[in-house]
Each structure stands twice: as C-alpha cells, then as structure tokens.
C-alpha cells in the first residue's frame, strides 16, 4: 500500500511536487555547480567527463532518452561511456582482433593444404601463403602501434596513481606541520610527476586505437545503443540533414514528384520551427492504388531522417476493425490480461521516440481507433494502459489508404487527373 493511500498518513504529510530539472540548470550543475552530488554519484574519474562535456550529456540525454529525468539519465550516460572506455583499454582493438582471427583461420587452412597432393590444393596453397604474408604485413604495424599506445596509457596510469599517493603523503605532512617534507613534495616530487604525465599526454597523435578520455563520440555511441539511432545521425548537423531531403527521396521513389516534394517541404517547415511544437514532425495521408510507392516513401523517409529504414513502426489497421482493438494500440487497462505488455503502438514509440509510424489501410480501422489517432495528431502524445505518457512529437505519422483508387486509375486512362483527384478527396472526406 502506498503511503498516501492511508488516510491517517496522508493527513499527517504534505505532498510536495518536484519537477524535472531544466536543461540549462543541469549543464551548470554538471560543470561544477553541484560538485559533491556529482562526485558521489559518478566518482572522480567520471566527474571530469561530466564537467568537460556537460552540455553534450544533457542535450543528448534530454533529446533522445525518454521516460527518465535529469540528472539521473545524464550521470548514467557518462557512467556507461566511461565503463566502455575502460573495457576497451583491457581488450584488443576490433581491427586487430578481426585480423588475428583471419590469420588463425588461414594458418589452419595452410596446415591442412600442406598434406594434400592434388593440383587444386597446391594452387590454393600458394594463394593461402600469399594471403597470410599480406595479412602479417598488415597486422604487424598495427600490433606495434597498439603495444606502444598501451604502454603509454599504462605508464600514465602508474604516474597518476603515484601522484595520488604523493598527495596523500603531502596531506599527512601538512597535518604534522612537517614543513620541510611539504616543500619537498609540493615543489619536488609532485612537480616531477605532473611534468611526466603532461609529457606523455602530449605525445598523442592522430587515429588513436586506444583512449582513456570520454568525449562526444563515446557519449554518442552509448546514446545510439540505448535508442537505436545511428551515431552518424546523432553527430550530424540538423541543417545538413534536411537540405536536399526531397532530392534524396526522389532517388528512391520515382514518379511521385508532387507527393515527395510535399513530404520534404512539410518536414523542413516543422524542423525549422514553423509548425506547432506539440504536434508530430509531420502527418500525412497517402491515397492511391497498390504499388504506387506509399509504403516505399515511408521507408525512404525513415532512412533519410534516422539513417535506418527499420526505424519504421508499421501498424496494419485491418487488424483494428473492432472497438475493443483500441486496447491493442495503447495497452490493456489495469486488471485485464496483457496489461503488463504495453500497447503495440505506444510501447514501440516509447522505446524509440524518433521513428516513422505507418498506419497501413487506415480506412479499415474502427471509429474508436480514429479518436485515439486524433489525440496523437493534435497533441503529439498518448497515454498508454499503464498511465505513461508517450511523446509523439519526434515521430512522422503516415497513413495510407486505397480509398478512391478506382478514380485515380480511371483518371490515368481517360478522365483528367484533376477530376479524379477531386473525386478521391470527396470520397475520403465522406
């Protein structure tokens, strides 16, 4: 039983609402405004990353990670990024590991071929030996570079540990008022260690295999793994992504010039801030016969906006012809079977808020389903069966229908296309 469900406890307590932190305030906190809280939550190593890349952490987590609040999700984000960097330091780079596996495979094949006497095996033996020599020539400089970087990082770690020990000794000497010892440590040993660390850290070159620093790339990788959004899209400028969107869509969807341009312009207007901010990025109704590219355009849009056509939530509306089928979209209410599973629509969008939502054959859905969709189109949000509010503002809503297809086909044969289009619109309005 919750505390507030008990009448006596509820009367004795006063409810105080705590709102989610603002982005600007959290950036200031992570950069040093609330050091003790951050240090206790993330540790000294991660704290430097929090201070340096506070804005990247807060903006990425606030934009792409839903269902959680700041500063919790920002701190968890840098924790996992630091853990990934630490694991990579203790394992071989992927490039070397793949080459090592290939080398072992070729060596096994080489030993097997040496026992064969036929011409085909002997010819293959020559090829394998050449491949193995080329692979070793490629692998050797990479291994030397890896060992050199690993030794440098290990030495930096050792020096930093030595610095911590000296700082602890310095504090002990200060408490004992041993001024001579304090001077020796502060202006002697500590300065030597700091100079050695600075020298080693300054030796970094380009295209490093190993790093012990958490930066924007490492943070973006974690966000990409959590949300499914490719790393390239997280780091890409929004302006560069949207310029030429219609032209790139035309390369995949041929013959639908007007429809593709309308989609591209609508998405561009929304991203430019000219639309209503609480509504989805775009809402479209594609009308036409089967095979003209309605679903293909939805896939192409998902690929261009999110770099992956699989970020397409497809709902077949022929499965929602009954009134009770609304529960399948948003999830069963409490007490009903399947309540804990979530809705087919809300659960997918909650997990991946940046996606294209396709409602196929929308004319077959029950009117109660349309009432639910109206809330999505108008308010950009939907409450699921578990009471969670799902944000649709970063989705693109596409509805397809074959309604009036016969008029369009007739317009292509004899009647004018404008008349056919007017008939389709009249039928869809009805």
Descriptive key words:
430 residues; alpha/beta; 4-stranded parallel β-sheet; two-stranded antiparallel sheet; 19 helices; 6 strands; extended; chaperone; repeat; nucleotide-binding
User: How large, in whole angstroms, is the Cα Rg?
Assistant: 30 Å
Indicate the multimeric state: single chain
Cα(first) to Cα(last) distance is 51 Å
Major sheet attributes = 4 strands, parallel
Q: Strand sequence of the main sheet, in spatial order?
A: 1-6-3-2
Total strands: 6
Helix content: 55-70%
Order of helices and strands: HHHHHHHHHHHHHEHEHHEHEEEHH
Count of helical stretches: 19
| Uncertain runs | 33-45
Strand-pairing-aware structural class: alpha/beta
Shape: extended
Could you tell me the mean pLDDT?
A: 78
Strand content: 5-15%
Protein name: Clp R domain-containing protein
Keywords: ATP-binding, Chaperone, Coiled coil, Nucleotide-binding, Repeat
GO biological process, one term: cellular response to heat
InterPro entries: AAA+_ATPase, ATPase_AAA_core, Clp_R_N, ClpA/B, ClpA/B_CS2, ClpA/ClpB_AAA_lid, ClpA_ClpB, P-loop_NTPase
């Amino acid at each position: 039983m919750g505390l507030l469900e008990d009448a006596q406890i509820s009367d004795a307590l006063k409810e105080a609402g705590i709102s989610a932190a603002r982005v600007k305030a959290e950036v200031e906190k992570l950069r040093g405004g609330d050091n003790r809280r951050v240090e206790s939550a993330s540790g000294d190593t991660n704290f430097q990353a929090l201070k340096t890349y506070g804005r990247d952490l807060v903006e990425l987590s606030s934009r792409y990670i839903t269902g959680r609040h700041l500063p919790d999700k920002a701190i968890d984000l840098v924790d996992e990024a630091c853990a990934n960097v630490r694991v990579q330091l203790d394992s071989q780079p992927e490039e070397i590991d793949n080459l090592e596996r290939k080398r072992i495979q070729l060596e096994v094949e080489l030993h097997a071929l040496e026992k064969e006497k036929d011409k085909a095996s002997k010819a293959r033996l020559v090829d394998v030996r050449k491949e193995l020599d080329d692979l070793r020539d490629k692998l050797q400089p990479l291994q030397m570079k890896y060992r050199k970087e690993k030794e440098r990082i290990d030495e930096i770690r050792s020096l930093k540990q030595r610095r911590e020990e000296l700082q602890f000794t310095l504090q002990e000497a200060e408490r004992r008022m041993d001024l001579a010892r304090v001077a020796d440590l502060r202006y002697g040993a500590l300065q030597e260690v700091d100079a050695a660390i600075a020298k080693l850290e300054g030796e970094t070159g380009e295209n490093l295999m190993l790093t012990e620093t958490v930066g924007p790339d490492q943070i973006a990788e974690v966000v990409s793994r959590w949300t499914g959004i490719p790393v390239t899209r997280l780091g890409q400028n929004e302006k560069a992504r949207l310029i030429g969107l219609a032209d790139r869509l035309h390369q995949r969807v041929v013959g639908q010039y007007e429809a593709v341009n309308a989609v591209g312009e609508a998405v561009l207007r929304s991203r430019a801030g000219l639309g209503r901010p609480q509504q989805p990025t775009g809402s479209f109704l594609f009308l036409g016969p089967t095979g003209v590219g309605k679903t293909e355009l939805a896939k192409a849009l998902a690929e261009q906006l999110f770099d992956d056509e699989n970020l397409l939530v497809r709902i077949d509306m022929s499965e929602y012809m009954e009134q009770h089928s609304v529960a399948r979209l948003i999830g069963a209410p409490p007490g009903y079977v399947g309540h804990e599973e979530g809705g087919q629509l809300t659960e997918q969008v909650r997990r991946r808020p940046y996606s294209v939502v396709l409602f196929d054959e929308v004319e077959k859905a029950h009117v109660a389903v349309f009432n639910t969709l109206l809330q999505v189109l108008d308010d950009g949000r939907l409450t699921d069966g578990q009471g969670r509010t799902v944000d649709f503002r970063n989705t693109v809503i596409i509805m397809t229908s074959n309604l009036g297809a016969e008029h369009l086909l007739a317009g292509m044969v004899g009647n004018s296309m404008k008349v056919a289009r007017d008939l389709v619109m009249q039928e869809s309005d009805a």
